[in-house]
Amino acid sequence: MQQPESSDLSRILAPVLARHGKDSAQLLQILRDVQDACHHIPAEAIDQIAAHLDVPRVTVEGVVGFYSFLSTQPVGQYRLLFSNNITDQMLGKDDLLKYLCNKLWVEQGRVSEDGLISVDNTSCTGMCDQGPAALINGWPLTNLDQNRLDLIAELIRSQKPVAEWPPMLFEVVDNICRTDVLLGEPFTPGAAIKQVLARGAKETLAEMDQSNLRGRGGAGFKTASKWSFCHAAIAEEEGSVICDIGGNPERFIVCNADEGEPGTFKDRVLLNSHADLVFEGMTVGARVVGASKGFLYLRGEYRYLLEKLEGVLKRRREAGLLGDNILGQAGFSFDIEIHLGAGAYICGEESALIESLEGKRGRPRNRPPFPVTHGYKGRPTVVDNVETFACSARIAEKGGEWFAAMGTAQSTGTKLLSISGDVARPGIYEYPFGVTLRQILDDCGAEDPYAVQVSGPSGVMVSWKEFDRKIAFEDLPTAGAFMVFKRSRDLFQAARNFAHFFAHESCGFCTPCRVGTQLQKKIMDKIGSGHGTICDMEELKRLGFILKSMSHCGLGSSAANPMLDALEKFPDVFERKLKALAFEPAFDLDGALETARRITGRDDEWAHL
Amino acid sequence: MGTFMSKTITIDGQVVPFKEGQTIMDAAMAADVYIPHLCHNPEFTPHGSCKLCTVKVNGRNVASCTMPAVEGQQVLSDTLELNDERLSLTQMLFVEGNHICPSCEKSGNCQLQAVAYYLGMMSPHYNHFYPQREVDASHPDVLLDRNRCIYCELCVRASRDVDGKNVFGLSGRGIGSTLVVNSASGLLGDTNLAATDKAMQVCPTGALLKKRQGFTVPIGQRIFDHHTIKDVQLGDKHE
Ligand SMILES: Cc1cc2nc3c(=O)[nH]c(=O)nc-3n(C[C@H](O)[C@H](O)[C@H](O)COP(=O)(O)O)c2cc1C
Ligand code: SF4
Ligand code: SF4
Ligand code: FES
Ligand code: FES
User: What is the per-residue pLDDT for A247?
Assistant: First the structure.
């Protein structure tokens, strides 16, 4: 891989730095652009960026090291990352990855000698209904099979720029299979804002309160309460950087489009086809809490949506729905900026997301204080899920009572589910809360369903005995993932995949999560390779207890869920794999001699144990 | 207790006064109640990463070094369950790095080791990870041995907040986390770290050592050879 000459580097860097300005919150955005241009972040670029933003070099290096899509070492000019969700695996991803590596003569995780290509795994890219999926230089590839990989290998060998590849490789469809009030009814941009302006901000908050809308990102916090806390917050000015964009004291509206939970892809569809509803919801929120600046934090995997979304924002500005004096209302100013992530599930956690928005490593903050009082740049900030904002726009338009009439008393409205796995019709299904799993499984054509992973790896593994349970905060809360496994599937493999996911995505801040997720992964691998014992099952339970009770954030505290659920509900999937019921060392003595054998060139009887 | 403080919490049943703005850890230390900790040092802003200081407040686990004390909190700390979990965390810290105490210059003065003694650690329990981590001997007066780093970021905080130098930082993610230094070469010798910096006085383990001090105090005569970490950290060395 040719290192760019320093003059080349300056030529690449100058426009990037000029475009992003000198606010250190732009650091991650700058690094993304440099990575795209140079296929890594050269050491000299780190120095120049640090100087430009006036931050220590070590800060820049720390950010580069944190995000999966950034690297200090060159990756291939063509970097192909296979989505490694269990649904991709079920669709044959492992074999496809090997097939491509063989075809291109490249080892997984390494860069080919000529620097042309690197192939590796990445966490779920949110295309589970059209997998196996991958990213090529950040752009999504869907429905992969050997034919498509043959074509891709050819395109890479002939060094055709990705922009000139056949569009059908990049086709991403919505697959909306069931609609209700959120996806099914028409929406005229501006309709909700008009209602808010006619009704008043306070009165809109009252409607939100009456709707009893609860956050769709997973935790289920009541949205009206969050908004009113933020409105009420007078941030402690001490020690915090005060932003002087718009009014003061500044507050912020942040839309969480990190959608990193494996098996979840409903926010992608909302942003692709209902972006106006989402941006309108953010604008409603801005009016209610008194914010003049908003951010859409878009996961790096959805970078392909960026231009389209910028287009929607532009159109809204032109229509007077964003910018100064929105819809002619003097003093109502609000605009939205899109920030891209760079491959880090933890950045979906709201305080880590804010750190990332500030251009830092995505490390969850200590709480209290909470984002509603001390969020972006220390200012009161509302962070809500994409779907939550879409619901808010509907509520602002049609009223709280209308919304509260749907669903159950504690879980009002509808919920978008991202359905994938062993079903005939994977895709997006919108249901009123309270629907049973049985009904859903019927509707999507599940084939001999045995288990469902509701709300992704951090959610619950539900067994066939529980299919009368309901999607609702009071029964099975969900951020949207719904992965179906038929009877013949190996659920151990699913749990093992999730253990790997958490180990890969732990931010590493706290001891229990940094080490505990690794220990889980190692034990699952040990059992998976036929070396497990009863002791290992006990150890998993103990680790689960430590992760749940000692972790710093929700990643660590839910990282044991798949193992604990599987152990409790499907113990046989473990027992089938156990080698012996007594102790079995994790250390493979003979395997440890392998290096020595290679060095000495020996493979005789005495070189083995 | 010189000044009268009206607000109190209880820790393991003992009434402990606190001042507004204090954390549970602050209040505990002021009242001579020891809560095991590694990443906390009262001279610096709390960090909350090692989780050894976890206590149970009204049934929920929280890190006492970052959790503000609030009137009426009932805190449980010295319980079998919590000490057992603290022990597991300590074992995790040992196995994720490469800690060879008998040959380590910090042995006897090391807080990780001392906490392990305190919690009654008899074995590492988990299998060692044997990670490959870099040793940096490029600095004339300082040795950085990443094998012993527990990512407490005390050196990071000290260098940034006291020395005003930002010599240290964290990079990587998850188990791939690594302590990096502020130079293009990645070497400590190319930073402006001085052996007299505050950052050189805070490392709880033997990851950051002054050169040419090897075994000036013989093993057997070091702090934790004679005092528990509890006594030392409560400032009561029973000299
Ligand atoms: C590890 C982790 C990942 C998360 N990822 C997301 C995410 O991708 N999208 C999201 O909306 N919320 C995510 N959350 C939840 C957020 O922290 C936060 O609760 C949510 O954005 C609040 O919005 P809501 O009230 O509208 O649900 C995540 C939480 C954790 C602990
Ligand atoms: S740093 Fe502490 S625990 Fe690690 S080897 Fe040295 S004495 Fe042992
Ligand atoms: S070098 Fe020492 S002080 Fe710095 S982070 Fe590592 S263990 Fe903590
Ligand atoms: S890294 Fe998030 S819980 Fe530890
Ligand atoms: S001392 Fe509190 S988390 Fe480390």
Answer: 42
Whether the per-residue pLDDT at A272 is higher than 70: the answer is yes
Ligand 5 centroid – CA B52 distance (Å)? 5
Q: What residues of chain A lie within 8 A of the CB of B184, using their CB?
A: 43-44, 46-47, 57
Question: Per-residue pLDDT averaged across A443-458, rounded?
Answer: 97
Q: Which atom of ligand 4 is nearest to the CA of A507?
A: 1
Query: CB of A433 within 8 A of CB of A407?
Result: yes
Does residue A346's CB lie within 6 angstroms of at least one atom of ligand 1?
yes
Interface test with B, best of A550, A551, A595 (most B CBs within 10 A): A550
Angstrom CA distances, A350 to A164, A197, A481, B8, B217, stand at 37, 29, 19, 32, 48
CA dihedral A527, A533, A535, A541 (to 10 degrees): 40
pLDDT at A242: 39
Predicted ipTM of the assembly: 0.96
Class of domain A78-170: alpha beta
Multiple choice CATH, B3-78, 1.10.275.10, 3.40.50.2300, 3.10.20.740, 3.40.50.300:
3.10.20.740
Quick check: CB of B73 below 6 Å from ligand 2?
A: no
The bridge status of strand A78-83 relative to strand A134-136 is antiparallel
CA distance B62 to chain A (A): 8
CATH fold of A415-489: Ubiquitin-like (UB roll) (3.10.20)
Q: What is the pLDDT of residues A348-374, one digit of tens each?
A: 999 999 999 999 999 999 999 999 999
Which CATH architecture describes the domain B102-235?
2-Layer Sandwich (3.30)
Residues 6+ away with beta carbon under 8 Å from B78:
B12
Q: What is the pLDDT of residue A584?
A: 61
Supply the pLDDT for residue B2.
47
